[in-house]
Amino acid sequence: SLRQSAVSVPRDFEGCSTLRKYLGQLHFLHSRVPMGQGHEAAVPVTWTEIFSGKAVTHEDIKYEQACVLYNLGALHSMLGAMDKRVSEECAAGAFTYLRDHFPHSYSVDMSHQILSLNINLMLGQAQECLLEKSMLDNRKSFLVARISAQVVDYYKEACRALENSETASLLGKIQKDWKKLVQMKIYYFAAVAHLHMGKQAEEQQKFGERVIYFQSALDKLNEAIKLAKGQPETVQEALRFTMDVIGGKYNSAKKDNDFIYHEAVPALDTLQSVKGAPLVKALPVNPTDPAVTGPDIFAKLVPMAAHEASSLYSEEKAKLLRDVMAKIEAKNEVLDQFMDSMQLDPETVDNLDMYSHIPPVLMEKCAALSVRPDTVRNLVQSMQGLYPLYPPGGLGEAGLDSLCPPGGLAVPPGWGRQGCPSPCPLDVPVCHLALAPSVSLWWGLARREQSKLALSGDRGDTGWPIQGPAPQVPPRGVPADPRHPPDPTPPPDDKQVLQNLKRILAKVQEMRDQRASLEQQLREMIQKDDITTSLVTTDRSEMKKLFEEQLKKYDQLKVYLEQNLAAQENVLKALTDANVKYAAVRKALAEVEHKWNTTVQTLVASYEAYEDLMKKSQEGKDFYTDLEGKAAKLLERARAACQASEAHRQQLLERELKKQPPPRPTAPKPPLQKKPLDEAGGPEAAEL
User: Where on the tree of life does the source sit, at the highest rank (predicted)?
Assistant: First the structure.
């Protein structure tokens, strides 16, 4: 169907699209099926030669492609002749591709000389369009002269092809007409080029050069007029108009120089020649461009050679990835070792954020205290509840001290210290050490974080107003020193050091992230890179070249990675310098952190000591209350036992007195004094 459309193609841009599509599908077919000259699936292909009208047949599918390409170039030239001269695109692309990629022995109209003639004719006419546009846009005279000179160069190349004997014999009478027309164009556009060189000399006030350029332009135009005999009236009219312009310019320039400037007129060959400026471009031809060929109708036919070539290409991709990854891993290893040796964590390089809020464990204790405004009063009352259980009148600090022997105190089970033979209701050193932090340290934090701790209000005769000074409870052996959290704010110089270090650490992380991102992009790009379709339509001899072209798509990523890896040395050097300045700051920050943690631990410990003290004081109170009750019962029992024993002893004594004879009278003795029952029963009770 495509071939039928291509043979009778319409003369419009739709016809160009049909030819391009058929050309592409022929290329796809040829890459899969052996239809070349002498191959197993070759079929005869017949076309008519353009000049002789003879039918030419070849059993080679490339001949079919060559004929389609020739017709594509011819159709482009026809459309260009019908179109307005506003574009520099031309039909030379098809002829150039045909000349460079196909044999020249198929037919005489595809010989090297004929194709070169067509190419230069197309390029020359396209350059004419650009020249006309430049003149209408009033471009600089020198640029217009160079564009016109390039038109001359293209037509000179075409004229050489026309003068070839083979071309002359092939074209016949057409050769003479074309040669005459091309020579006329050569002289005409040379005249235009020298006209604008004369204008440039006039702008530069080189009046002698202006005369010779205008004279040369006039001479060349006269030659063009001689060769223009038999040309259409439009050509004759254009030549006459040009003669009026150049003739007028020459006469005026010669007159001005003869009567005003009197500059010497140099010879034309002594002046610098005008070099052409090739600004036109041929329409590119890509037989496998999917935009013009459409879907590959042979896509499912993938030869084994294409699979093999795809495997080779995959190995090339893997080699590229291995080379890149080796460089990345080497740099990453150096970076990791360096960062480990520095022991720099961007998240905790200054630890200043930890001071912006109270630790959760401390907040928990603060919350517990905030709902108990009478904390110290309750503690004192709990302690005072123990005092009546001992020497009458209660025990103050001196009384407590009097109960503490040098060797230590005996405490109820679970209080932590054992071994003193004398029972004591309270461990006095523990009391002092626990009470001091709960008063002084909590007070220091309360003054700093009133809103969070909610330690406010008057505490009566056992407390203090929060606005006043903290009470001093001197612990045994510990000087009274209210403690407060340290101020973590570094001085301005240290802040600058920290900011610089953070900035460089951020650069290190940015470098890491960019490197990882580029690596991931490279891996994904390699994973998605499948050129099997291109391999199917590529000749085996062109595989290596195709691999090189396809691998160029990774060059940009490789450049980015190389820049990233090269930047590491400078970044690490800057980080080393910043770390040297950071050493002193790090030490100061470590000390502040240690003090902060110590303060927090002390505050938490004081709360826990308070809780433990309240618990143990209550346990002690319960213990001694129970002990007092048991002792009272024991005392009653002891008294009863003593009384019973005394009564029994009296009975026995009376019985003995009755049995014994009356004693002999002796000197009178003082009567026995009876001791009180409490004193008499004391030893026995103690003994019991």
Answer: Eukaryota
Distance between CA 636 and CA 641 in Å, rounded?
A: 8
Start-to-end CA span in the chain (Å): 131
524-532, Cβ contacts within 8 angstroms, sequence gap of 24 or more: 525/553, 525/554, 525/557, 526/317, 526/318, 526/320, 526/321, 526/554, 529/317, 529/553, 530/310, 531/310, 531/313, 532/302, 532/306, 532/307, 532/310
Closest alpha carbon to 351 in 578, 576, 588: 588
Written as six digits, the tokens of 651 are: 């009975």
Q: What is the pTM of this model?
A: 0.52
Question: Does an H or E element contain 55, and which?
Answer: strand 55-58
Task: Look up residue 440 and give its DSSP letter.
Answer: I
- Rg of the chain over all Cα atoms, to the nearest angstrom: 58
Q: Which amino acid, 420?
A: C
Query: b vs e for 69-101, b when ≥16 Cβ sit within 10 Å of the residue's Cβ?
Result: bbbbbbbbbeebeeeeeeebbbbbbbbbbbbee
CATH superfamily of 140-275: alix/aip1 like domains (1.25.40.280)
User: Which of these, 535, 522, 358, 340, lies nearest to 453 by C-alpha position?
Assistant: 358
pLDDT tens per residue across span 170-222: 888 888 999 999 999 999 999 999 999 999 999 999 999 999 999 999 999 99
Beta-bridge partners for 47: 56
Q: Are 195 and 245 in contact (CB under 8 A)?
A: yes
| Contacts of 584-592 spanning 24+ positions with Cβ under 8 A | 585/490, 585/494, 585/497, 585/498, 588/490, 588/494, 589/350, 589/351, 589/490, 592/486, 592/488
Do 404 and 431 contact (CB within 8 A), yes or no? no
Where do you find CATH 1.25.40.280 in the chain?
Answer: 140-275
Query: E-assigned strands of 2-48?
Result: 45-48
Tell me: the pLDDT tens digits for 560-574? 999 999 999 888 888
Under a CB-based contact definition with an 8 Å cutoff, are residues 225 and 189 in contact?
A: no
